[in-house]
Amino acid sequence: MKRQGGFTLIELVVVIVILGILAVTAAPRFLDLQGDARKASLQGLKGAMQGAAGIVYGKAAIDGVENSDTVVSVSSGSTTVDTLFGFPTATNSGIGSAVAGLNDSQGDWAPVSGSVTSTSIQYTFNGRDTATGCNVQYNQATSASEPTITVNGESC
Questions:
Q1: Model confidence at 87: pLDDT above 70
Q2: Helix (H, G, I), strand (E, B) or coil at 143
Q3: Percent of the chain with pLDDT over 90
Q4: Whether the model pTM is above 0.85
Q5: Among 27, 41, 78, 88, which residue has the fewest nearby CB atoms (within 10 Å)?
Q6: Is the model more confident about 29 or about 81?
Q7: How far apart are CA 28 and CA 15, in angstroms?
Q8: What is the 3-state secondary structure (H, E, C) of 106-120?
Q9: φ and ψ of 105, to 5 deg
Q10: CA dist 137 to 63, 109, 126, 134, Å?
Q11: CA 73, CA 62: separation in Å to the nearest integer?
Q12: Of 104, 96, 89, nearest to 142 (Cα)?
């Protein structure tokens, strides 16, 4: 009589257990893609703010108001941006006007409630005001320093 080849029940159970262990250790890495995407979007907004601040400063320098210690409006085409020391102020008419989409009510970004002060503003994903640890904070320029932009992404 010919002996049939195949796997024993024990071998099949061991393989299933090993696959289960691999799935448990690898699954969390793939399931957190939404948080990673939010953090990447925050980094993108930070880059957009830095680029816009540099462009506005260049326009302010051309207009000769880069050293002004009072709020001055700088215009470029149909866009007007409030500046202080040549950089956008921490308001909707400052950095909000400089970066496309920040003042758009249908856009992806909104100021965090209660985060707007006279020198800083925080933006988060529209409708996610409760995620205070998932935002970008813009601190306007002072006479001694350029604006600082900080990403807070620990709670995304």
A1: yes
A2: coil
A3: 44
A4: no
A5: 78
A6: 81
A7: 21
A8: CCCEEECCCCCCCCE
A9: -65, -20
A10: 27, 12, 15, 10
A11: 13
A12: 89
